[in-house]
Design goal:
By secondary structure, the protein is mainly alpha-helical. It contains eight helices and no strands. Helix 3 crosses helix 4. The longest helix is centred in the middle third of the chain and has 23 residues. It is globular and about 50 Å long.
Amino acid sequence: MTNQFSLRHTQVLDRAAILEVYRAESFRLALRITGNPTVAEDVVQIAFLRLLQAPELPIVLPELIKYVRRTVTNCSIDFLNRQRPQVELSESLPNTENPVLDFEVRQALSQLSVEHQAILALAHGEGYSYREIAETLDIPIGTVGSRLNHARAEFKKIWEAGE
């Protein structure tokens, strides 16, 4: 006997096929936040497992995309909060075509809180609008502006201290 939240085999296969369409975007988002390709792949797997096991997924496309983004972002932040000391920075982010500058930027970013790293990744790395960031992080638009401003100021302070 199955309970009301159990998914039939065909529903799981349908969800897996739907989610597969968003794998590349999800990986890119997780990579921007975590800074590590291996960690990003793990985060996407965790997020997709959560999405596969969710009792319901939004059926309207814009809502589904927001739901997937929010889940990937939350899983990325959760992973970084749990594994913070062991996360290594990616060699591919950021990409200024100057290896020394890239390293210095990564070093400065690694000193920010996970929340500030995430909001900078969404705004500057992914190019999300304030509205998209608010929907992804499930916070008010005013909070997006405030956090982004604080993250930029903190990055600037760290950057200037390192010069």
